[in-house]
Design a protein that fits this description.
Length: 626
């Protein structure tokens, strides 16, 4: 058997890796180490990201709104903790030690995610009697209501109730339960599973906090000032990020949805372990970058025999219960985000007033404009892991083929079909079966797959334009990103005109949405990473990188609010009204699409007035570049 998604992934990887490897030969060797280490870290993160919203709604049976809030709390803290990790690296640990510590926590966290326990069970109570929903077959299948010895599907009624499909006359339940005549609940089969889940994501949150801002900082340190290779280096590094994300969605999504959640999450943990090994073994190629600012101070005992370094590690571990408590409380996360934003931005402003020159302040001002624009972009872009992921599972026709295709290739019969289509066929012996199945979580690979294809193109174009002094300034690139993310949502709304009778939009429109979002991301995200390292004074470069991720944290929180607006009623993780679910999503997508395009256009106009704020930081003429 050949899985078409895996086969396509292999082809895309081979074809896109060749120009990347060719370009990377002209970059510092340390980029290879960071490339592969971050690739595996993103494999672990995006593997869980592809599955998490489905895990919350189908395993723990969270409502759409609660699942979106929980997802947002997790991702908000994932991008908020780099504030601490960046500061600890700047002042004490150095970036390399911070990365290793973060990677160890990530391995433990993703490993813990494999401990899923038994799924929760949806209950229905009517006139004092309680009934349970059961799943027959896959853990992704829609649950059936158990009445007596038989199980029945349920469907919505126009009045807001539910119909029990096929229920025989004389049953203990009426065939139609009107709204208000019943209550639904959740029965926890293994109560420890939720505690294990929250502890695991607390480890992941802390791990990302130490790893994420610091590994990007080392990329910038590999290049001399004004080196024209820097932007393309970050774009190639971004390719590595998305190579990990691409295969995570394909493999973790396939295992998690097909065989069980623990398989998908467990594979993600193995990916993180591989990333840790690559980074540790590649230390010599980092050219001494990322070491502690005062190594002797770090080794000095500060609490009895405990050195400063181990005290930092110990305090971080002791802080895990705080994260465990917070991640379950979305409102509290919002207040902490606000307080952290005020504190860290206030710290930078104080530095601007008391320490930095006029030119440095203007550069930081430009950096803050880009950071604000990134909040808007990622608020829309990060619907991918929540509302767009649920849209893929509920309102997208995921069939890659409408009917089976049989043909002869070099004397060998080849069958293109889904497993269900294959079961209905009579085929010759010795055939090759190409599984045309695409799971909802595997749709997450579209964004990363498009980056694999277009990252080398964007890197080459930016380098070509930069050498000729014609490269658009960063603000214009950011405006391009905002317009594209808005157009992506508007295109998906238009695609609803072609929805089928099950209120499912053709897969092509969701793929094109991700294509536009990807073009926007390539113009914005790697450029933003590079700009922070260019525009920030060296003494606060890790802090500014942490603020860059703070912007992503704010975007994740806002994205959760928006995703919550697309919520629809579910029973046992099953949508009762497909039409209502489609309408709810499209209304929100149209609104945020308009905002994306409008704000992008406004930023383009603003670029003509503020592009000089870089004060030469974006010049690419330097003797050190040769």
């Amino acid at each position: 058997m050949i899985n078409i998604v895996i086969a396509a992934g292999v082809i895309i990887t081979i074809l896109t890796a060749i120009p990347v490897v060719m370009q990377m030969r002209n970059h510092p060797k340390g980029l290879f180490v960071l490339f592969f280490a971050e690739m595996w870290e993103r494999f672990s993160y995006y593997g869980m990201r592809a599955l998490l919203i489905f895990y919350l709604t189908k395993h723990f049976l969270f409502s759409d709104e609660k699942a979106s809030q929980q997802y947002a709390s997790y991702t908000t803290l994932v991008y908020l903790l780099p504030l601490i990790g960046g500061l600890m690296a700047d002042k004490y640990l150095g970036t390399r030690k911070a990365i290793v510590f973060g990677a160890i926590l990530l391995v433990l966290g993703h490993g813990g995610m494999a401990l899923e326990g038994s799924p929760n069970v949806q209950t229905l109570t009517h006139q004092g009697a309680t009934y349970e929903f059961v799943r027959e077959g896959s853990h992704m299948s829609n649950p059936l209501l158990k009445v007596g010895d038989d199980a029945y599907a349920v469907a919505p009624t126009k009045s807001g109730g539910i119909e029990i499909v096929g229920l025989p006359a004389g049953s203990v339940l009426p065939p139609v339960l009107e709204s208000g005549s019943f209550e639904t609940g959740v029965k926890k089969i293994t109560p420890w599973a939720e505690h294990a889940f929250f502890l695991s994501i607390s480890l992941i949150i802390m791990g990302v906090g130490y790893l994420k801002p610091n590994i990007s900082s080392i990329v910038g340190q590999l290049y001399p000032d004004k080196d024209p290779r820097r932007d393309s280096g970050f774009t190639l590094y971004y390719y590595g990020i998305n190579l990990g994300g691409f295969w995570a969605a394909i493999l973790c999504g396939l295992l998690g949805e097909t065989y069980g959640w623990g398989y998908g999450f467990g594979l993600a943990g193995l990916g993180m372990l591989a990333g840790l090994v690559v980074f540790v073994l590649g230390k010599p190629w980092l050219q001494g970058n990322g070491e502690p600012p005062v190594p002797e101070q770090l080794k000095k005992p500060v609490a009895g025999p405990i050195s400063q370094e181990w005290l930092i590690y110990g305090i971080s571990i002791l802080a895990l219960p705080v994260i465990y408590f917070m991640v379950q409380r979305n409102t509290l996360v919002g207040w902490v985000l606000l307080a952290s934003s005020v504190a860290i931005i206030g710290y930078v402003i104080m530095m601007m007033v008391t320490k930095f020159s006029r030119e440095e302040n203007f550069r930081l001002g430009l950096a803050f404009v880009l950071i604000f624009a990134s909040v808007i972009f990622f608020t829309l872009f990060e619907q991918a892991g929540s509302s767009l992921n649920l849209f893929a599972g509920r309102n997208t026709n995921l069939n890659l083929i409408d009917a089976p295709v049989i043909f002869n290739l070099l004397g060998q019969s080849v069958v293109l079909a889904t497993p269900a289509q294959l079961a209905a066929l009579t085929v010759p012996t010795g055939y090759i079966f190409v599984d045309m199945t695409l799971t909802a979580s595997q749709v997450q690979s579209f964004n990363s797959g498009f980056i694999l294809i277009f990252a080398p193109v964007f890197a080459a174009v930016f380098t070509f334009l930069g050498r000729r002094g014609a490269d658009p300034d960063p603000v214009k690139k950011f405006s391009f990103g905002l317009v594209n993310v808005g157009l992506g949502f508007m295109l998906l709304v238009w695609g609803a005109n072609f929805a089928d009778g099950a209120f499912q939009v053709p897969l092509m429109f969701l793929a094109l949405t991700y294509l536009l979002h990807t073009w926007g991301e390539l113009a914005l995200s790697p450029v933003g990473l590079s700009q922070i390292t260019k525009l920030s004074p060296p003494v606060i470069v890790s802090t500014m990188m942490a603020i860059w991720f703070l912007a992503s944290s704010a975007a994740q929180y806002l994205a959760g609010i928006i995703a919550g607006l697309t919520s629809t009623e579910t029973v046992g993780g099953q949508v009762l009204d497909q039409e209502a679910a489609l309408k709810s999503s499209l209304d929100v997508f149209w609104t945020i699409g308009l905002w994306g395009v409008g704000l992008g256009a406004g930023l383009f106009v603003l670029s003509f007035f503020i592009k000089h704020w870089s004060y030469g930081a974006n010049d690419t003429t330097s003797e050190s570049a040769h």
